[in-house]
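re the bet — no i am not wrong, look at it urself. input seq straight from the record:
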Amino acid sequence: MSAKFVATFFTLLSLLAWLVAACASTASAPSPQSSATPTVVDATATAVPPTASPTPVIVASATPTDVPPTATAVPATEIPASSATPDVAPTLPAPTPIDAGGAQLEIKAWSPSGRYVSYLRTARDESETLLIYDTVSGTRCELPDQVQDWFLPTHLWLENDALLFKRGQGEFFQWETPCDGDPTPITGDVPTLLYGVASSSDHSRWLVLSEDDLWLFDAADSTFTPVTGMRYGTHPSAGWSPDGETVVVVYEGSAFAINADDAEAVRVASWEYIESGGGENFPGAAIQWLDATHFVTAGHGLSGAYRIGLDGTMENLSQTLFGISFPPPNEGQGAVRLWVLPSATLNDAAWHLLHAQYGDGRGPAFQLYHHESELVESIELPTEDAILNFVGAAQDGSQLLFEEWENGATGRAWLYAVEGDGSERWVEAASANLSPDGNLLALSRENGVYVERLTGDVGAEWPLTFDRNFAELGWSPDSRHLVVSGQSEGEPQLFILPIRSQ
């Protein structure tokens, strides 16, 4: 074997060893994909806001007033779907309020997608400013509204998050992208005032009140049409059919169906109406539909709750299902309230009716009707003298949330299992609210604000404390944001907490 061959052989071995080492080094190095930030935010991590905030474009009025943002959009706090989480909540940093100070800060209405929310700021001198907050950019702008809210909203969210409002001088506008671009004037016949009574499920249509006359607004062509054949009435309830073709208005023992195409109202049912007392003409509870042609009233005056068909058929459910006689023996025992559960959809047979009858000096007595089995059960309260108010239900109708009232304030909430599987439990909280999807429970307690799953597992906690430990809790329609408002050392504060990114 020659020396040249030996040298070549060892050279090849060295080259092979170098290649093996290089491959091993490459395999052990982290790839860009493995080091990327995960989509789900770690609830224990400190949320870091963006380094730069978009500057809001204020174009709502001829002489706009720039309102700088007080907080930037922050990453959402993901609440895992699994209940296999620790009992101790991850404590998140105290967030920055989107607004603070003055005399009062009050959430008014969310846009259909949950991106925008309007709120009212009342100053110490009682002057009021209506603002729009964008949860995506963390910016806000002023809205030049006609007047401040009565019992009904004066600015109306439309489909695709457009906004309908009226300026003080009488002009109506439709704003396709709130806080950006010029709002479009609405021409043609318009009402004198603008109060929203009820919207279709997709917000493409609205029933609105002017002075004492009703109008229909169609967002597709931005037109108002006056309603004929009825007036507004006393303590009216209203609700659109699932297909958005009919809106029903109930007041003073009559039910009217308004056709969306021609705005003509037709009386479909009437019954003996027993007035329940005076007071201001605030709207009644919304009409709830069982299908495209049948709806239920929540209870008007002392006349009970009815199931009514557009064909004129009707049934007093308070009497036939829940055994309550009318007229009542005395006024204090006659007022009732009815809820359809779940309210999101009734495509299957597993729906329920929750009925409450109010009595003198005590809380309401609750009964539950199961449509599938046609059985009625009385809900046994956790304590004999408990005064409970119904707050809401889980999306699948499996659990009901009540608040206990004592000496004019809440101290705890009660979860009741509809099927009676023994999972009833008390929840200590000054205030409580279920997310619209019925999966999460927001709680205000002495040491902070919590979000839990209905199983009791805590998803997140924020160290926010308020006077009397009480905070108003509200949810965006998509259940992605939690609104928290309350007083801290006498100063109003308003927070919007991102809960989920999807």
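see?? DSSP finds two helices and 36 strands in the chain. told u. also The CA atoms of residues 109 and 473 lie 14 Å apart. so pay up
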